[in-house]
Amino acid sequence: MIALISRITHGGYADRILNDRQLARLLGGSDDRRYGQVKRALKSGELIRVMRGHYVLADTYRTQPVHPFALAQTLVTGSYVSMETALAFHGWIPEAVYTTASVTPGRKSKTVDHKQFGSFEFNPLALHKSGFLAGVERHVLSKQAVLVASPLRALMDLAAFRKQDWVGVSWIETGIRIAPEHLLETRRQDFAALEGVYKHKLARMFLAGLEAGVREMRSAIRLEQKESSS
């Protein structure tokens, strides 16, 4: 183990995503000396570059594998994981998702393909700044804090991104394969929290239509239960 790796592990940073500033504090010395150590560690595979100026230790030296959600938020600061990725994380869609999709506070889309960590997509949405993190939750995964959209927020982000018209609950069930029971998990306060988030009328209409659709589903269930008990 080279000195740089030893300093990182003994300093308690083995599971962190490290930047140049943190490495400078850990290693001290001149920039040239530090760059030389980093270069050797990268060449040996003990250190892996996530992007310019950001690194992680190889799994051999970590207690937890680096989580793709944490990597996404390093690649684009201020982003949060959403859309199909968040829906799969919450168990709302059955398919495996191989690209980590995030919403970015910036104005440009970005795609990153990392040969070791996979694919990442970042897309902006027309959102009011005050509601950017509405319905976004903090999770700790593999000892790393990450921001992930709640299921309803992830669904709404996906609809907003696709500019999807509201055509009824059937589109959600067949087009995205979200089971009705998941929609029934949503609460009135979940919808209320998203009412001031989206700028485009189409997204706001989708949110209103979805809430009405969920109410109709609940009414149908209550009616069926009433009829079966009578």
Query: Biggest sheet, in brief?
Result: 4 strands, mixed
Q: Termini separation (Å)?
A: 74 Å
Number of helices: 10
| Approximate helicity band | 40-55%
Radius of gyration: 22 Å
Topology as H/E string? Answer: HEHHEEHEHEEEEEHHHHH
Q: Total number of β-strand segments?
A: 9
pLDDT averaged residue by residue: 92
How are the strands ordered across the major sheet? 4-5-7-6
Contiguous uncertain segments of 5+ residues: none
Q: What structural class should be given to the helix and strand makeup?
A: alpha+beta
Instruction: Provide the number of structural domains.
Output: 2
The dominant shape is: elongated
Percentage of residues in DSSP E strands = 15-25%
Description:
This protein is an alpha+beta fold and 230 residues long. The protein has 2 domains: 3-61, Arc Repressor Mutant, subunit A (Orthogonal Bundle), CATH 1.10.10; 68-219, no CATH class. The chain is built from 10 helices and 9 strands. The chain has a 4-stranded mixed β-sheet with strand order 4-5-7-6, sandwiched between helices. A 3-stranded antiparallel β-sheet has the order 1-3-2. It has a two-stranded antiparallel sheet with strand order 8-9.
